[in-house]
Amino acid sequence: MRIAQIAPLTEAVPPKLYGGTERIVSYLTEELVEMGHEVTLFASGDSVTKARLAPGCRKALRLDPSVRDPNAPLTLMLEQVYRRRHEFDLLHFHLDYLPFPLFSRQSVPFVTTLHGRLDLPELQPVFDTFNEVPVVSISDNQRLPLPQANFARTIYHGLPERLLAPRPGVAPSYLAFLGRIAPEKRCDRAIEIAIATNTPLKIAAKVDRVDVDYFETKIKPMLAHPLIEFIGEIDETQKPDFLSGAIGLLTPIDWPEPFGLVMIEAMACGTPVIAFRHGSVPEVIDEGVTGFAVDSMAEAIAAVGRLKTLPRAAVRARFEQRYTARRMAQDYVALYEELARRGTSSLLAAAE
């Protein structure tokens, strides 16, 4: 198939460090190329891909202080996709609802993966208006606030099978927190769990500009405890050692997590997960196999003592069954083919 992948411009594809959506776009794009599809990636100019790259800006907007209005390059990229739309059998957007007005008024099949939270009240009238646009959810739970949306599939994220793997000979000795420090991610809970269980905690996380005050006032004072080590943001090459050395990953979230990429990154390294039962967590974790979903701090603290009862080989095996990039790409191709057939049928019916 001739497929266009349209990514955000905030980060490169793949991102240099943090960036969940752009990372998934990269994994999907590269897997589709490996499967023999003709893929064009619309993304920032510093993206790296085996697909054809159609740059929407010079480099990732987060890394380019000269760009003061990020909507300008994004608008131009959407126009570029529109003008080239007939080069493709399917357009796959990763820009939330932004493509809906323009691309609902043309005939090339398109689909949008919704990567974020959907429980915001301002989204209701958008999906009331565009209730025929096909969208993909990344967990069943993510769908719940928008029953009127036209969900075509739930497709779970996946990672390249050999991207992250257990490091042989590493003896797990600490708890891990990975990702982003923000109020909803509850790094404070992770610190409290580590202290309560007398277990070292290593924190590998970025601090966004909007969360600096939260970090300085809430989290930074807690880092003084001798059991706590703050590493900062890490890249893909550092994750296997970091996660393989962990007894378990703590994901004590306090929000409706749409998917939770860090959980399957841990599983890829054979590391079980303790996560609070919000959003996608009960779907992503196989209870008693890849970790534990908990409802309280008391349950989380008790679960730490059970982590070593979970065979790490079984955690890795379940990752290979459920969360590889090849499985993700195959699921998307099945959807692309269905939408392409449906689009062709619609065009023929309209012509008649």
UniProtKB/TrEMBL annotation:
Naturally occurring in which organism (per UniProt): Teichococcus rhizosphaerae
Single GO molecular function: glycosyltransferase activity
Highest taxon listed in the record's lineage: Bacteria
Protein name: Glycosyl transferase
Keywords: Transferase
Stretches assigned to the Glycosyl transferase family domain: 174-302
SUPFAM superfamilies the record matches: UDP-Glycosyltransferase/glycogen phosphorylase (SSF53756)
Domain Glycosyltransferase subfamily 4-like N-terminal positions: 18-119
